[in-house]
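Wed. Picked up where I left off yesterday with BIG2 domain-containing protein. The coffee machine is broken again, so keeping this brief.
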Amino acid sequence: MKFKKVSVIILAASVALPVTAFHSSPVYSLSNANAYLPVPVSNAGFEDSAAYPIPGWRVIPNLPAEGLEISVTSSNFAEGQNSVYIADNNPTKSLELSSGAIPVQAGETYRLTAQVKVESKSIRGYLRFKNSSGAIIGTPPTQLIELKNGTGWQDMTIEGLAPAGTVSAEVAFYMGAAGTGTAAYVDAVKLEQKAPEGAPLTLPYEEQSVLVDANVAYALSQSAFYGTLPDGTVEQYVATTGSPVSFHVVDPVTGALKFSENISTSSEVIWGMTQGSDGNVYFATSGVLYRYLVQEKRVESLGSNPSNPAVFDLKASADGKIFGSTYSSTNQGRVFEYDIASGQFRDLGVMKAGQQYVRGIGVTDQYIYAGIGTTAHVMRYDRETEEITEIQIPDVSGTSTTISEIDIYGGKLFVYNGSKLYVIDEESGEYIRTIEFQTKISPPSPHNGNLIYYKLKGDLFSYDMQSDIVAQVEGIPSLPEDTAIKTHAWITPNKGTFAGKTVLSGMAAFGESFLYDPLSNTYEEHAADLPATPTQINALETDGKYLHMGGYQRGMSVYDLEQGKMVYSNKQFHQPEGIGFLNDAAYYGTYSSARMYRLDMSKPLDYREMEEGNPGLAADLGEEQDRPFVITSGEGKLFVGTFPGYGQLGGALTIMEETPAAYGGFPDVTYETYRNVVPDQSVFGLAYHNGKIYGGTTLNGGLGADLTADEAQMFVFDLAARQVTQTFVPEVEGLRGKARQIGGLSIGPDGLLWGIMDGSVDNTKYDAILFAMNPDTLEVVKSKVVTETPFNTSKFRPYYLRWSEDGLLYTTIGRKLFAVDPEDLRTKQMLPGTVNLMTLGPDGSIYYTDNAKLYKIPVKIDKVTLQADTAELLPGSRTNITTQVLLQNGQNAVLEGAQITYTSSSPDVVQVNEDGEVEALAPGTASITAQITLDGRMITSEPLMITVQKDGNWVSQDILNQIEDFKASGDLHHSLAQTLSNKISQGIHHQKAGRTTQALKMVEDYLDHLQKNSGKSKISAEAFEKLTADGTELKELWSNSGF
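Structure written out below (tokens, as returned):
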């Protein structure tokens, strides 16, 4: 497979294109204002009494308590004459005001609203659902109201589905124990039940989801470290990504696993790891600092840092401190300090005002050097005076990029920026040079203190800090080429080839480890024995036969829907963001650099990262694009919508096309990239129809980018003309603010263009609006505000619209799973909580993900039927049974992983094996039933009747058997029995030879002998009657050529 970029075209406001910007007008809109029915809340406006305790409400803890206050006041109110004032000035205690139990019904949706006025800091609201025992069994996303969002009365809105078992709800307002000096007024509390929208939407699905035995797993590390124990033993410490992440200790020579522990409360990745001055290993995830005690071989939590939850780098100082660099989009990039001796944290503050990342740090006895992004800066923090100054890097400082790490060796700063390593004189701050490298440098060599080492692609290089000379290390095998080195160290192994020698060690992202002796120029490689861990599923699509899954950080898997098992897994695959299909091949859009990989499951599998393969690289989109989330196809082409890289604005539309290769080889792939189809916005949704590509955008660019646009748009791209012809914002009823993002575009069975719009309400939520428009006139035909999208959900991942054969639409609107009737827009939320990824199987089953797990919502079973190639058999013949499970949506179930047990009602007539093969044994009738276990459900089929007919072979053999039986019982004299047996045996011989006339003559002789002996002593009446009847039947069968 060859790929070629045909053209790259930048579409911006200055380009002369026939673009018409307008707001489309709706033809009509279905009801957008969902009806809500009031649910009584005792003393909801705090008007009943000003006394304490407050009627209808309880306070936790009981008051009075030092620094805590809850009181009814008339000094501030949103309505009526009173509100409740809540203040927490206690540094160790939390404070909560909660309602009594409010009767509600399971399966219904409820909305809590309140008016909140924050006087200081913030307050959080809760809506809790409880069972009959009073235990909390469900909590919709909470809402935090902060002072910085406004000084007046603000709306608090929380909505959620009451899960099964709910009997009551509780409303609560809370201030945490960690803070102090928080104060707010609350008024006008309302609880409402969402009213049914006409007739309830009836769905053909089971209520319970089923866990599918499929995942994406790998052992990927984003942080590692080598350490030496007090006895001189060297250990390799590795954190692997996943859900949860895991911490491991590995033998650095053999790769053998020595210790492993899951960090259950963690996020999906650990970025920072270091060894403290106490010899123990420190790492952080989800804001929590952990310590691995090397002597006790156990992990302990040290608590949450005071800066930000996202920790990217950890460095230790010789005086017993651990420093961490952090990220926050709202709290800015900060550095924290942990004192090993006292166990105390300290927030050292923002390193560069207005910047979100302190991506990496370097530490000396005097300074902390902070790498800033997404506008690059290197800041120096004086540990004694706390003064912060900037160190300038020519042509880098102030540009849109990120400084990811800083090392300090030999009086020089080594500043990491992607594939560039900037060397700066630490004392003077003067720039020395730029080195092209890959991810990590080593500490100085103990054999030559001027040399550091680093990897570039598959080669090892050295840099002489004194002479400023870069040199490639010759004469050693290639290092792991396609993965980044996560750590370097100089170690002295106590065993193996390099026992007693001080050598350079290194580990790449998938545990590939090496040892290098610069004195002998010898090198060896081994793999760390790291257990694979299921990771968060990041992409999910199906082509009808296979379910394609992509993992967060790395990895992809393919699940065969018919066989019900995983058929391909690739632990090294780059992070897939989106998956699409063209010409029976799957295309994976991966992060970073927006590379497209092609996979054909009908061909031999052979992964190639940077060349043609299966899967193999089909296109490297480049052009500062990073994340290909949106992929669709039409007119024999693949259309890809992308987000740009870090700190960048301006997504792109790429059009890809295959040309079949000769002799069954890889196809040639050509592509064209059009950036800024809508200036400074990214492509969030795509659909194709009649020669036009319809797109929706989001305001977001790459992570850390400063947004410039204020409203998302749709665009129409003419495929023939290769240009944008129109941009517009659909006008939909119920939109309370401007459109933040428009996506989930799809041409429905009705020919309309459907999509999802998130409209800004405030900084806590969006209106999630479903709309349908005429693709020719761009007029909105119908629309509805379905739900709300929480502000803190993904701003990158698309929404999905899936059309089912049952006539309904299934979607992830609002980051929830909804079913929609496209005729009247009746909706039903199918699951509580967040659902980001969802697709439909060929039988209508819904597959969705929850972190690292894949679930299936099966369609209800209508009935199970059995079909046979023939229902009438002859003795000794066979037939096969086909089992069909008919679902309530009219589809036949895909029997993935089904267990089927067949039973015959008359095993002496027919037998049936585990594969559904039926064998006829004797004339008669039997019913075959199948008991099927599918997705945890057991159901028995309708019976299939099988009739085994008599034939000449069976009757003739039966006559011989009966002659022997009657002879043994004394009912048939020996001499007559011999005569009768001879006649039938001769008849069988003639019939098998095709001499039917002679065979019939033998049967007639047989009947004559019976007739002559009727009533005589040689045969009983019973034997005469039975043998005569069977002989007559045999004569009839052979006369009709029945064998």
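Quick read: Residues 3-28+535-857 form a domain with the Methylamine Dehydrogenase; Chain H fold (CATH 2.130.10.10).
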